[in-house]
Amino acid sequence: MLSMDKALESWVARWRQRVDLPLLVRWHTAPGEVPPDAPSWRLGAFEQPAVTVTVRDGAALPALLTPTLDSLGEAYVEGRIDVDGRIEDILAMAHTLAENGAAEGGGTLSRIVKSFTHSRKSDQAAIQYHYDVSNAFYSEWLDPAMVYSCAYFENGDETLAQAQLKKIDHILTKIRLQPGQRLLDIGCGWGALVIRAAQKFGARCVGITLSQNQYDLATERVRAAGLQNQVEIRLQDYRDVTGPFDRITSVGMFEHVGLKHLADYFRLIGELLTPDGWCMNHGITSTDAHDGETAHGGGRFIDKYVFPQGELPHISTVLRTMQEGGLEPWDAESLRRHYARTLSCWSETFEAKAERLRAMVPEKTWRIWRVYLAGCAWAFEHDQISLFQVLCRRAGRSAQELPWSRRWMYAGAPASG
């Protein structure tokens, strides 16, 4: 106990020479409330701390002495530390500690390029780990349609539900979906896009997912909407789908494909498309030009606790591998600001319903999701990760078939060609 006290005292002294943080660190490894006389250290001059970290387990000490987003996040979700304060202040404090820790030599500024083997079995396990927490859990903080991807705030004043519907319509308008056309949605979630495509655009749709929970609820929602003759939901790997399809959408899914498999993924999409078909790939991208993970250990935390085997390509890699896979990228739109707002909406709802959500899942799961949603909102806001919609079609087609402008994407006007 004494040596740990001294280690913390030395750490606090070093930090106070460089930064003035409204952070209070307390030491109390016994269960229950923290007594007023528990050892505590201030990292700045303040009347009331913005954030209070309570060390509950001595194993958390290395995370404080050499802080990274990975080590701090792990200490929190494993219950080695408790953290009190507004989630925005907690995230700002964590990033300050990680960035200064890297400058001191304790952390790392490097962006590691990950590489995983993506078999059908491992991909299914990764998807089910993330999405099969419970439908009830997701429904508490998503919009009523349960759209779990970046919304589209056309004017900036939309509610989350309005922005999610606009995102779906934005995608379906971009791909120029027509009545009677056959649409494949790879990674269909809880079915919102295929249901909208059938109801508003008159398409015949197939939605695929590897999540049993998503499959069950999406199938139920299709039945409730009376769309069984237009929409089919499948529990199926994308590698097992056969075509052809006039239109293909992939929303928030290609992050699970793997960097080494992107060209093959896009090649398969091209094979599934009709010769004059269009595809929309909507997905999260790295802001590191070499496809590295988020800095300061944020990517390692997400891989360990949130998205096993997730790999984010830079937009340049997306465009290159599309071309390698036989697709022509025709239009790319960044929605980074939109995902920062989307995640902030999710995080705010999560915080507002904190106790209700905490009672629904194990404590560790609740902590993972709390820090994940807020952390991703911060990362999108500060250009550590991004998101692009890329509209593409089979390569080698005549230029005469291409529209002259992008006006139809926003005005909803028919595109020539």
Automatic annotation (TrEMBL):
Q: Which UniProt keywords apply?
A: Lipid metabolism, Methyltransferase, S-adenosyl-L-methionine, Transferase
Indicate the residues that form the catalytic site.
C376
Q: Indicate yes or no for the key word Cytoplasm.
A: no
- Biological processes annotated in GO: lipid biosynthetic process; methylation
SUPFAM superfamilies on file: S-adenosyl-L-methionine-dependent methyltransferases (SSF53335)
InterPro entries, per database record = CFA/CMAS, CMAS, DUF7884, SAM-dependent_MTases_sf
Q: Ranges for the DUF7884 domain?
A: 43-99
Molecular function GO labels: methyltransferase activity
What the record says about family reads: Belongs to the CFA/CMAS family.
Name assigned to this protein? Cyclopropane-fatty-acyl-phospholipid synthase
What is the organism field in this record?
Tepidicella xavieri
